[in-house]
Every structure is written in structure tokens, then in C-alpha cells.
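note to self: dont lose this again. the chain is below, predicted strucutre after it. 415 aa total, dont forget to put it in the shared folder this time
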Amino acid sequence: HESRIPQLPMELPRSGFACLAMNIKQAVSVPVMASNRITTPDHAEQILRDGQADMVNLGRVLIADPFWPRKAKIGKPEEIRPCVACSQGCTDEIFSGRPVSCIGNVRAGFEGERLIAKCGRAKNVMVVGAGVAGLEAAVTAKKAGHNVEIYEKAEDIGGQIRIAAAPPHKQELLEYVRYYRGYYRAMLKKHAIPVHLNTVVDLDLIKKINPDHLMIAQGAKPLVPPIEGADDPSVLSSWDVLKDSPFLGKNVAVIGGGAVGLETAFFVARKGTLSPEMLHFLVTYDALELERLKHYMFNGSSKVTVFEMLPRAGQDVGKSTKWILMNNLKRYGVQIKTSAKVISIKDGGVEFENEGDKVTRLFDNVILASGSTPVQDIEKQIESQGISFSTIGDCVTPGKLNDAMHGGFLAAIDI
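---
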């Protein structure tokens, strides 16, 4: 893991190093095992069918789901809880001197204490919000014996995970949506949990359904920072950009250098660069020299500048993956201005203060990535109604995926 070539993160394609195992297999007469980013039974089988290795080695996927081999053997791969190669619960924790856990497997590291006990009396539980916090809470409550139904205002489940999966190399996060509701039998279908999509929940609907317990997982919304002009309609949020991928001009500013801001900058800087398919085509036919290929790979349609008020950017990015993200931003020409406090935004001009000097730079687009704030409409409506409820996920305090999943589980076992 001291190699400067990433060994574990999402950026490494699934079973990416199997070709190296095949190279060894062709030179020796003993069994050879392939390793790294082998995530699904289909990938494992493909390696064996293609003759790249004799066996496969499973690592982090067994933390995410220790029953991976059993589920594969009995033909239920859709029930395997996915490893998305985030390294947040395992590698990052090791680097910080803490025990291993998993963002997706809430019991990993807590097997002896986080037990799902069958309830004495089944309650009718109404879950508001089908993001990962609401989904984890619903599945856990159902396993405990409660009657559960989910209500979601959007047209599909997933919540913010669909936005989180938009930046380059983050698409693995969508595996959680597949896990909860996939093509095959997945969790919602297996546990017969009804999901009401395109449904806005208000006090009238809650009174009509009259649940024994209400679990609120409404999530969060983008935070508009106290910067003059930040609320102008021309100013975009990182959520807008990651969700809708709008047209952007040649020079783009991103205000906020945390994880969301940096990943948004990476997303924007990649726009207009070579697709993997086009790169394969150009290499196959020797259409361009290597340096020209690199130019088209790392120079997109927008130049991006990130403004971060703290002395260092990316302080909330995991230790095991931060160096990869920072190197990628450098490759794509993203400029990061630290200790730069943005004062105002007006007509494309970003005025900021850096080391006592005030400077204004012009941009075609300005994107805010200054965090998020909880959505608490329902909580405020029912506080005086005597309804039993709990709040989970970002509508309590905006956090990471780990906080949402673990919070959903813990709230459900406390019903």
C-alpha cells in the first residue's frame, strides 16, 4: 500500500489487477490467486472463466458482508451487502489507530452488541425519506418484527447518494441503491416493505396513517453561506451541478474546499475530456502521440478554481484516499486557493480576502459547496402532537454516509 498507484479505492476498476495474476499464471505451474477489488460473484467467476487466475482472494468485501461466499453459493448474489471501496470504515480507521468498521455493514466491529432482537409487540412504523438512513432504518425495523412502510417525495429511492455518486470514480456508491432495491430480490422486496414514491408527507398524512412510531429521515439541503450575493439565482450549488450537469463556461469558481467542493471541482474539470471508450479507440489505432492523448485526457472544457478559507483544503477527506483526490485535481489543472475568504459574489466577480489583501476575479460560473443544513419541516409540525417519533440521518446533523447508515440502524433497534 506504499505504492503511488492506487491499490484499493473506487478509482481502481473492479478486478483491475487480474491481468497481473494472469501474467504470473502463464509463467508458473502452481495455483495463482487474483486479488484487489473483486466485489461480486460475477466478477470472481469472470476471472476464473477467462483463465486469469485459479482462485480469487476476497478482502474488504468480507467486512461488508461476511456471508458473501454463502450467498454466492446458494444463488442469492443480490442479497450481498456491497463493498463500495470507500475505505472510510476500514482503511481510514486503521490509519487513525481505531478498530475496523464498515459504512455499509453497521454491525461490523460491533457484532456482540448491535443485535436485532425481535420485538414483543409489532408497531406500525412510518419512515419518511428513502435515503440510506431511512432505508437502513426500515429494513432493520422490519427485521425486528415491526410493520414498516416508506414514504418518499422523489420518484425513486436513494436520496443524496445519487448526488454523492456523481463525481468521477464514485459510481460504486449506487451499489447501495441496488442492494436495497435491485433487479433481483433485494432488501425491500425480500422483507415486503411497501415504498410510496412521489409522496409528500405532511401533518395531515401522518394523522391519516396514524403510525405507532414515525421515523423522520428527510435529509438536508444545500447551505447558502453568509456571503453577499450567494443567494443570487445565477449562483449554482454543488448539488445542482452534480445532479444536473449543466452547461458551464470556461472559467468556474467553486467556493468551499471540503470533500464536496473538491469532488465537485473534479467533476467539472473532467467535463469535456476523453471518455474511456474514446481513449481505447485512439490507442488501438495509434491515432495520437502519448503526450497529445494526455492533453485531451486531462484538459476539459472548464478551468476550475477552488476557494477555501482554511489553511488546508480537504480536511474532511479520508486519509487513505485524500492523496489520490489531490493528485487528480492537480492533473486536471484545478487551482486551489487556501486561506481565501470569499467576501462577495457579483456579476461573475468573486471578491476574496487572502493574507490581508482583497482581490476580485471574474468567472463564468460560481458554484457553492459550503455544506448543508438539516430539513426539519415535519419535526416542527409534530412536536406538539404527541406522536412518537425519532429523527435520523442528515435531518439531525449533516454528516457522512457512515453516520446515516449507522444512525438509521441504531434508531430502529431502539423502537
